[in-house]
Amino acid sequence: MAKGNGKRYEESFKIETVKYISENHKSVAQVAREVGVNENTLHGWMKKYGQQPEIKAVQSFSSEGAALKALQKEMRDLKEENEILKKAMHYFAKSPR
């Protein structure tokens, strides 16, 4: 038995569809109906293209609380890195050449 109907889609269409799902927080099933693509095919595209940097960049946080938490973590990390750099600067400034 042959698999599928052999319909081929452009890679750019696949990527744009995955971006659309990520940006609009719509279900795969809903978008599959909207664009006329089999739901399982769309799940495959999500798996294949969902981790690409341009896709991950458009994925937004599910809530303001999650966004705030992520920003606070980033701020803590940056402060820690800044302290390490200050200590290194003092260490190298004291050491004779």
TrEMBL record:
The keyword Coiled coil applies. Residues 61-88 form a coiled coil. GO terms for biological process: DNA transposition. Keywords: Coiled coil. Gene3D superfamilies: Homeodomain-like. Transmembrane segments: none annotated. Signal peptide: none annotated. This is Transposase. It holds the Pfam family HTH_Tnp_1. One of its GO terms (molecular function) is DNA binding.
